[in-house]
Amino acid sequence: MSIPAEVLKKVKLLEISTRKLVNNLFTGEYHSAFKGQGMTFSEFREYVPGDDVRAISWPVTARTGKPYIKKFDEEREMTVMLAVDVSASGDYGSGPYFKGEIINHLAALLSFTAVRNNDPVGLLLFSDQVEHYVPPKKGRGQVHRILRDLYYFKPKSTKTSLNTAIEHLQATLKKKAHIFLFSDFIDSNFDTGLKMLGKKHDAVAVVISDPTEAAIPNIGLIDILDPETQELVTVDTSSPAFQKSYREKYQQTLSDREKMLRLSAVDRIDVSVGEDFVTPLVRFFKQRNLR
What we know:
Blueprint: H1 5-33, E1 38-46, H2 58-64, E2 68-75, E3 80-85, H3 99-116, E4 121-126, E5 130-137, H4 140-152, H5 162-172, E6 178-183, H6 191-200, E7 202-209, E8 221-225, E9 232-236, H7 240-264, E10 267-272, H8 279-289
Parallel strand pairs: 3-4, 3-6, 6-7, 7-10
Antiparallel strand pairs: 1-2, 4-5, 8-9
Helix pairs in contact: 1-3, 1-4, 1-8, 3-4, 5-6, 6-7
């Protein structure tokens, strides 16, 4: 299937804007923030004063007549998995970008940074079902494929199920990976699954929100369409009772989300529509380096 020219143009522009940010901001922070999968044996070398005596290889020492130690290097390669919520709520935004577009930019930054560090990167697109999966792989071609899929793939469903994505990642990723889960996290009962995912992998919740969703302006009678359920209702925005009910429901939704994210015990990055979305990512990496 051929990719439309406008999609290819978006991918190219995103690559150009992203490359500068990666070169200037992310590479060093990323490399320091994420530890490798462990230590791998490198070589034997002769013992020198100050070396850890616990690293002495007694068989080699006995054979050569001189003390030798085992040298280990950190295994730096890290699998990065981008799990992206493509439900219809991503089509909302009060700033220059919709929620989904901000997610695309952040995913691009992480993809190019991973490739620059020679790490494999993969993609999972989900709604209330697994929409599309790209296994982790190295190389710029992989990043281009991921960006094309982020822009071009059309999800079958408009709804959200974080547990569907979490279960798929648990079943698919056999080795420890660094998982960035992008969503507004307006869902229910995902805390237990996300906590289990965080115990096996290094999971990070990237929470996308828009402050204008907290209130509806007083503009009289309007039709409101829920993008996920496709339910259409007519409401009187001038009604104090409606305004009070909407605010209370929204605050309860946020309270439930915060509780589940807190119980999941995973790291999180908060990104707000209409504000600089790069700074929260840089801040996250810097904070990790201070641990």
